[in-house]
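step: validate -> pass
step: tokenize input -> pass
step: predict -> running
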Amino acid sequence: MTTFVSKEVQDGLAAARIASLRKASRLRVHADGEVFPVLYLWHDGFAVEADAAQPLRGLVDLYDGARHLYQCLIVASEFDNGEMRYEFKRSTQASDHAPLDFYRDPQSPIALLPR
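step: predict -> pass
step: emit ->
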């Protein structure tokens, strides 16, 4: 017994899989003033829908909803099943405050009360 699935059915299944990944993910990539949904993220890269995104390259920002997660330097890795995968050359975690340029003693008081 052989299993044969027509090309139309395969294309429909692939489109449904990508649509479900896009709907489930809150992750977004901001590049060159445009926003692209991220299908999934792993420790050294991410994937976006190939049809929705122009070829990305260089410095991009990765967001989870409105929260800035990473600033990344990326390169295109591979194209597979309607997804374009990118790998991080550098990934820096975003912070909402400036880094300190001095040592803060953990035992020091937070604030001083006037008399």
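step: describe -> Strands lie at 27-31, 34-42, 45-49, 58-64, 67-80, 83-93.
step: cleanup -> pass
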